[in-house]
Amino acid sequence: MSTRRLVPRPDPALLVLCSLAGGDKHGYALMKDVEEFSGLTMGPGTVFGCLARLEERGLVEALEAEDRRHPYHLTAEGAAVLKTQLSELERVTAAGSSRLRATRRHRLDGRAGSPA
């Protein structure tokens, strides 16, 4: 059976918003957090490009620099967007999981009734 992905990996913006929902972080801490909770590695170019786009949309804001580190904060609008995105993903995941369980039960029930 092929293990190729059917759908693309989560969008970097979603990963960044999820990370910042756990608290303010600078770029390097954000990269490490994303890797911990998702198992995916994001490079600096991806993270900082994503942060710039999210900041332009008002979903995150840069905080005052601490030493050389520039932390970012999830805005109220960013939290609302994240909540909506996660709700959509949860609906699809729940439906898919439920249907997969039903398919497995159906297959097991069908085998149980057939002669060996």
Give a structural overview.
The protein contains four helices and two strands; from the N terminus they run αααββα. α1 crosses α2 and α1 crosses α4. It has a domain of 76 residues: Arc Repressor Mutant, subunit A. The chain is elongated, with a radius of gyration of 20 Å. Helix content is 63%, strand content 5%. With 116 residues, it is mainly alpha-helical. The protein has a two-stranded antiparallel sheet.
List the topology elements.
Layout: H1 12-21, H2 27-38, H3 44-56, E1 60-62, E2 72-74, H4 76-113
Antiparallel strand pairs: 1-2
Strand order of the largest sheet: 1-2
- What CATH calls the topology of the domain at 12-87 is Arc Repressor Mutant, subunit A
Q: Separation of termini?
A: 25 Å
Average residue pLDDT: 89
Strand content: 5-15%
Major β-sheet profile = 2 strands, antiparallel
Low-confidence spans: pLDDT under 50, at least 5 residues?
A: none
What series of H and E elements makes up the topology? HHHEEH
Radius of gyration: 20 Å
Helical content (DSSP H or I, runs of 4+): 55-70%
Morphology: elongated
Structural classification = mainly alpha
CATH superfamily of the domain at 12-87: Winged helix-like DNA-binding domain superfamily/Winged helix DNA-binding domain
Number of DSSP E strands = 2
CATH class of the domain at 12-87: Mainly Alpha
**Tally of alpha and pi helices:** 4
Known CATH architecture of the domain at 12-87: Orthogonal Bundle
